Amino acid sequence: MMKTITRLHKAMMVLEYFTSHSWVWNNDNVAMLIAQLSPEDKKVFNFDVRQLHWAEYMESYCMGTKKYVLNEELSGLPAARKHLNKLRNIRYSFNTILVVLIWRVFIARSQMARNIWYFVVSLCFKFLSYFRASSTMR
């Protein structure tokens, strides 16, 4: 436990300066420079951040921080991703079951709500049977 706390404290001390101060950034000069570049120069000096895929960039950034700043191993990453996917599926299942129960207990007391419920359930069964039929066609 002390090893984990020491590692966490070291990471907090490294990031303290950046997390406790604020800066205001503007990119007017960069936008002006990009607008004045020729198409060949835009290919050679590709520094337009609007073209970044931010999700991929942030994942690489976090992996680099984990590996090079915190000096942690990346070997446990696939197991952690698998665990997160399992937790996400459990959350989605729980939320779906909760919505269905709330619908059945509180809302489905009227005939119109009951008709809507039967319509939605029949659509789900038709959807599932379509996928079962289409998967056997291959």
Task: Report on the architecture of this protein.
InterPro entries: FAR, FAR_C. Residues 1-72 form the Fatty acyl-CoA reductase C-terminal domain. This is Fatty acyl-CoA reductase 1-like. The protein is an all-alpha fold and 138 residues long. Helices cover 78% and strands 0% of the residues. The chain has helices spanning 2-20, 28-36, 39-44, 54-69, 77-107, 111-136.
Sheet with the most strands, sense and barrel status: none
Strand portion, in percent?
A: under 5%
**Separation of the first and last Cα atoms:** 54 Å
Identify the overall geometry: extended
**Uncertain runs with pLDDT below 50, 5 residues or more?**
none
Number of helices: 6
Structural class: mainly alpha
Protein name: Fatty acyl-CoA reductase 1-like
Keywords: Membrane, NADP, Oxidoreductase, Transmembrane, Transmembrane helix
InterPro entries: FAR, FAR_C
GO molecular function: alcohol-forming very long-chain fatty acyl-CoA reductase activity
Which SSEs are present, and which pair or pack?
Layout: H1 2-20, H2 28-36, H3 39-44, H4 54-69, H5 77-107, H6 111-136
